[in-house]
UniProtKB/TrEMBL annotation:
<dbReference type="Pfam" id="PF04123">
    <property type="entry name" value="DUF373"/>
</dbReference>
<dbReference type="InterPro" id="IPR007254">
    <property type="entry name" value="DUF373"/>
</dbReference>
<keyword id="KW-1133">Transmembrane helix</keyword>
<feature type="transmembrane region" description="Helical">
    <location>
        <begin position="221"/>
        <end position="243"/>
    </location>
</feature>
<feature type="transmembrane region" description="Helical">
    <location>
        <begin position="336"/>
        <end position="361"/>
    </location>
</feature>
<feature type="transmembrane region" description="Helical">
    <location>
        <begin position="182"/>
        <end position="200"/>
    </location>
</feature>
<feature type="transmembrane region" description="Helical">
    <location>
        <begin position="158"/>
        <end position="176"/>
    </location>
</feature>
<feature type="transmembrane region" description="Helical">
    <location>
        <begin position="263"/>
        <end position="285"/>
    </location>
</feature>
<keyword id="KW-0812">Transmembrane</keyword>
<feature type="transmembrane region" description="Helical">
    <location>
        <begin position="306"/>
        <end position="324"/>
    </location>
</feature>
<protein>
    <submittedName>
        <fullName>Putative membrane protein</fullName>
    </submittedName>
</protein>
<keyword id="KW-0472">Membrane</keyword>
Amino acid sequence: MLLVLCVDLDDDLGRKTGFSTPVIGRDPVEEAAVALATADPEDSDVNVIFQGLHVYDDLDERDESVEVAVVTGNDQGDVSANREVGDEVDTVLASLSTAEDVTVLVVTDGAQDESVIPIIRSRVPIDGVRRVVVRQAQDLESMYYTIKQVLDDPETRGTVLIPLGILLLIYPLALIGTALDMPGFVLGMTSALLGFYLISRGLRLGDRLDVAVERARRSLYAGRTTLLAYVVAAALFVLGGVSGSERLEAVQQSTAGPVEAPVMLAALVNGSILWFAAAGLTTSLGQITDEYIAGTLEWRYLNAPFYVLSIAIVLHAVSAFFLGEAGSAFFLGEVGITYLAAALTAGTLLGIVSTLTFAVAESRFADSDREEGTRQAERV
């Protein structure tokens, strides 16, 4: 049996005529079509129902097994309307008194109503879809629905509408800039906004920013010390940069003639390395604390603070030595080769000793854990 199924997704039939849906059978469907045409002659669903009757009559004249029905959704949105249509299709299928396999010919008035096709297909095979539109307005509703879908898509809005809106603002902003005697500034700012937006879209900076904000929010609510450590470390980095700049300025004032690039770099490092080391210690200790609380701490993680100290000692000694050799140690004092050698040796030994210590500790604790696991297995 072929079921000619007329779909009214937004329930114009029920809202405008009071008919109870689904409507099943040739005569009830014709009454519903006449009632809707009388209530609202311009409603496109009138054409859908009459088209369904036309198909029914044509197939009935050929002595084919056919039935016609009208199902409706509601005006509460696509998801709710689709569910309503699915329920009414189930009602129609349950009312058919036939031992034959049932297939469906769906009759709609445009692309919007065709969104229910997957719902119908999940219940009964579909032989075809017949779209009914007024000849004078061919594809008008489909074009409207397509544009509506495009504008409802967040990705499309961000990709198309925002750049288009900025471009449309150029002319009125240029007029404002001319009136304020600042046309170059206004046009430059508009161009910069457009360029920054396109670059951010190309690099997906928005997605990365969303991920970073979500991680920060989770860390805040989870009580993770890493978030606080990162904030403190950022402040220490800023202070380190200021301290390095001050050290460079002092070296420039104490040095006769131009300061060479290696000496400038040594001054910046020497003035900022202690602050940077403090920032590194803060972040590493915060991470170690979180790993311990989460129960995932491993011995080798404890190497991080010692590595930070080792690197800081080496960089501080090397930068101070370069400043002393260049005659720019205004307030550093003379730094000899002995101090440099001692600092390099101390930094290296600190890193090596910490690595060996925690490696041995991890190995022994791992062996003891395996032995304990073996004993428990033997007891079982």
